[in-house]
Every structure is written in C-alpha cells, then in structure tokens.
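User: Thanks for the earlier help. One more: Protein-S-isoprenylcysteine O-methyltransferase. Can you show the sequence and predicted structure together?

Assistant: Of course, both are below.
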Amino acid sequence: MISKNGIVSVYGFLLGLSILFVWLLLRNSDLLDTYVDPAVVNPLHLFIVYAAIANVLVRVVNRGTTYKVCAQALFLGLAMAAGLLISIQAPASWKPFGWYICVMAIFHYSEFLSIAVCNPKTLTSSSFMLDHSIAYGVAATTSWLEYLLWHYFLRDMKTIHEISYFGLLLCAFGEALRKGAIWTARDNFTHLVQQEKAQTHTLVTHGVYSWFRHPSYVGWFYWSIGTQIVMINPVCVVAYALASWKFFKDRIYYEEITLLNFFGEDYISYQEKVGIGLPFIRGFVVTRDKQ
C-alpha cells in the first residue's frame, strides 16, 4: 500500500503536469479571448508564473519532509510538462532535448513512487534520487553542455531522430528492468547497500532476478547510456558507458561480499546459476573446492 508521502508526491507531480492544461486552455479557449490574446501566450513566461504560484501553494500547505517531497514532485511534474512542450512545439533540433527531459522526469519520479509502494519504511525525500551524488550532477551538466555545443556547431546532427528513437527504446528497457527489480524485491530493495541483515531480508531469485543477479544495476546502466543516445551526444555516450561500468563494477563487488555474508551457500548457488548481466563484470565470486 502506498505511503502518505507517496500520495503527497502524486498530488505534487500532477500539480506540476497540470500546467499543460493551463497552457492549452489559454491557447484554445474562446472564453478567455477578452482577457488574454492566445497568440501572445509565451510558454516560458507561463511556466515561470505557474511554477512560482504552485511553489507558494505547496509551501503554504506542507511542512518539513512533506514539503520536500511535494516540492520535488512538483519540480518533476513541471519538468515532464516542459519536456512534452519542447517535444511538440520546438524546432526539430531541440526535440531530442525534450525527449531527454521526459525520460529523466519519469525515471526520478517513478523511482520515488516505486519505493513509496514497495518499501515505504525506507522512503525519504532523497528517494527521488535527484541528489544522488556530486558526480551524478556533474555528469548531467556535462551532457547538457555537449548538447548545446553540438547544437551550435552541427545543428543538423540533432535532427537525426532515428538515433534518438533507439535511445528511447534503450531507456524504456533499462527503466522497465530497474523498476521490475524494485517491484520484485519489494521490501528487500533499498537504495543503499545494507551492512546488516534484517530479519525480513530474504534472497530474491525469481522474476527479473532469475535473469540477472543485479537487474536494477543492469537497468540503470543501459538507461544512462540511452539518455545520451536520445540526445545524440557521442562523447557522453562513451563517457557515460565507461563511468557507469566503473561505478557498477566497484559497487557490485562490494555488495556481493555483503550478500555472501548474509546468505552464504545459498548465494554461492545463485551465483553459479545466474550471471550479473553487465559486460566483463564478475563480482565477488567464491570458488568451490572440487573434491
């Protein structure tokens, strides 16, 4: 069952997304012609005004952690709306950036909502993963800068939308695999590597865990590369692949040590049956003594 803050996040996300309906109303309603000229409705100005009013409303209604949750959900709803508007209204060379924004908004909001349903006791305002790490922020900023540079010097490259479509498919695969891992593991899934085994902690080997030992990492790996293919960022495609591979190689090695401590022989048997799913990563493998 979804937690209280999960419900609050739904309200915040929908409030942000609702700017699309406000924009369509101002553009198409004959009733407003007396007060607003639809031809001069500027989406950027509308976003600024709407976001300011919505933030004030969220701040007045909510306090503490609830406010942090609702504010981040509102931001992601506004981002989703902005991505959709760019995808529909902007010139062809900007559409990939709009698709990228939508992909990012869906990933981060669904991350929070999945935890709110599957493992609410671990839910915090950080479960949106927006403040994942400094490196994550630097990587995102770098990808935006690359997009702008290519757009300035070689704009036509950003109109090869077939490349972006492949990236969207890769993002959809990665997103589905990661969320499948969360929903399969449920209260066994956490964003942090656990140092101590909880009483309810069990070894999950069914569903997507029968395909890969770490499906959430496999999903995130391919999703991150997909975001750069969507934006047609050749440099960041390579950089993201290398950086993600290194991060997950170290993370998986450390996590498998803890899983072996938790589950012992059961995890060794699981390792023998199911691979990790990421290229050239073996994890921490215990070799059985052959008699």
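User: Great, one quick takeaway?

Assistant: The longest helix spans residues 234-263.
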